[in-house]
Amino acid sequence: VLSEADWFKSFFCDRMGQNLSENQAIFIDDNIQKLGQSVTVDGYTLTVESAIADSRNAYIKLILQSPPGTVLDADIYWFEPRKETDGEGYEETFTKLDGPGEGYGAGTWQGIDDGNPNDNSFTIMYALSQTINAELPSFEEGVTYRLHITDLEGYYEDDNRSVLLTENGVWDFDIVFDSINDDSVELITTPIATKYNEFAVEVTSFELQTMSAHATYTGRNDEKGIMCFVDSAVVLKDGTRVEFRPNTFGPSGEASFILSCPIVLDEVDYVELRDGTKIYKS
Questions:
Q1: For position 241, what pLDDT does the model report?
Q2: What 3 state SS string does the chain have?
Q3: Mean pLDDT of all residues in the chain?
């Protein structure tokens, strides 16, 4: 049985396709948070086991368990937020409990294969990112957030059907992050030119954080400028490559990225863009 820190190390290793650097492993050890909250509805227990977060991103690990004798054999278990009672909009999934109810994070659900499709347990990674908009609030230490999950259902790909686990199911959790890393570093001092095929831009800013990045660039007034950043990576001093993928982009010359694994900014050597252009950390 893996510890929560070891579980996250394995998760991020799979995402990177390689081993973590020594300092990446230490970062996860130092910043993992055990939560261990459970809510049971009609025999279906959802447990928020652990989390790791920086000021703009959070990864929350959940375990769904079914009643004895009930197999969780769907391809994925997920939910759609309920409509508000006034019919305008949908309930928020992750909010500050004592705040105005503003939603946090563009959340994504990922089912994690435990190697046994016919047991009564299913692991879910819920990832939230505030990088989609620089004006969105950052995650904070010591603040109570509400994770609000409703009407979980299983989806079976073979026959394209969904099965509701329980009527009127509500699983609510109160989460307080006790370790939030807000380190960041700007890599650009003068604009740097880069290109991919016919797409060329000048990078005017590239800000790294421990789990994400944000770039601004000139040279195009459409979405195609992002092509210069696809298949790029942060390279650490020991040679470890941490790829990043676009999270949001548009014609305004701004883009945000999600790193495949947390990094320690002191260990960054350079960012390597798609055409081999290197942006060194000073």
A1: 95
A2: CCCHHHHHHHHHHHHHCCCCCHHHHHHHHHHCEEEEEEEEECCEEEEEEEEEEECCEEEEEEEEECCCCCCCCCCEEECCCCECCCCCCECCCEEECCCCCCECCCCEEEEECCCCCCCCEEEEEEEEECCCCCCCCCCCCCCEEEEEEECCEEEECCCCEEEECCCCCEEEEEEECCCCECCEEECCCCCEEEEECCEEEEEEEEEEECCEEEEEEECCCCHHHHHHCCCEEEEECCCCEEEEEEEEECCCCEEEEEECCCCCHHHEEEEECCCCCEEECC
A3: 92
